[in-house]
Predict the structure.
Amino acid sequence: MGKRLKGWLIKLLAAAAAAALLWYLLPLLLAPVSGTLAQAAAVCTGLSFLSPATQQMVAQINDTDNREQGEPVEPATSQTAETDPALAEPASTTGDTAQALAAIADPADTTPQPAENTATVAQQTYREGSSSQYLALDSGWVRNLSGLGAEEVLDLSRQELPFDIELNSDQPQVLIYHTHATEAYLPTLRTWYGLTESFRSDQDEENMVAVGDVLTQTLEQAGIKVIHDTTQHDNPSYTGAYDRSRETIRHYLEQYPSIKVTLDVHRDAITRDDNTIIAPTATVEGQQVAQVMIISCADGDRIPNFRQNFTFAAALQQQAAQLYPDLMRPILFDQNRFYNQDLTTGSLLLEFGSHGNTLAQAKRSAVLVGNSLAALWGAGG
């Protein structure tokens, strides 16, 4: 009996040694296997039973497969903290866009309206203007305060873009930044606001940085390399914000000469004399979105390239109008504004809604503007 027991113990130890050796050699055995088979092996075996090296290898295979299938990965140059759930898939088709917009939800409004010290929030869709300042482009509208005649403005709107965007480049093509990063929105979708309510926030998940995050992610999913600068140039002081953002732009342009486009992402503020706040709103794919206004500055003394900037503004306006009617308010083409638009031939200021809109509405618009830019530049499929 002693010899038989000893024999069984030796066999048991040998089997255990072989199992342990196989456990640690499994990464080498799986290495030549395709990603699909590796994932199947992981499912069948159960990751909790694999060695740490095997778990890491399977995770790397899964990540590689996701990238090859076009699913989003964290952009290297973006300062985005986390991917918005609306952007789990690229929004390059109608179905994807509808899904992306629907995934961005407004929080429930649980705050009862106070009996006093409130005013009304009214939604309004801006289309063409009624005065002689408004000029119809081939698609969309422009409020022409540039000092240029209608014929020249129309001619500029039909020119080729003054720059080329290199798709799938490892060098940044677009800079998104915020001169007034702390601009914010209504916390929930409602028809009233408190007269003492603040529409500023230094929390990036609540202000213009959050909108810039969505725009950045949408462009990068379309193969357009973006730098998103999240500096709060208006905090702690609102005064001098444009001087500070100018230094930020110049820093990036010097570091990355590949940048062709600089987008200053803001929100507007529209208030009537009776304190009613106007929320410029449109409906796209069954969802409420904040209307967007492009500001293109026409100060010819300080912006020698203002005509090229306007050509870009008009191209974006017309592309968006074709894809998403009512998304865009008329372009403001104004000779009395500057906004650091002398630094490139692709410099624009974008106003995402007003302080009567919600952050969710503005984020939905960022998806649509990103899709429009991608289509304009031949990206996004």
Observations:
- The first strand starts at residue 118 and ends at 124.
- Residues 91 and 97 are 5 Å apart (CA to CA).
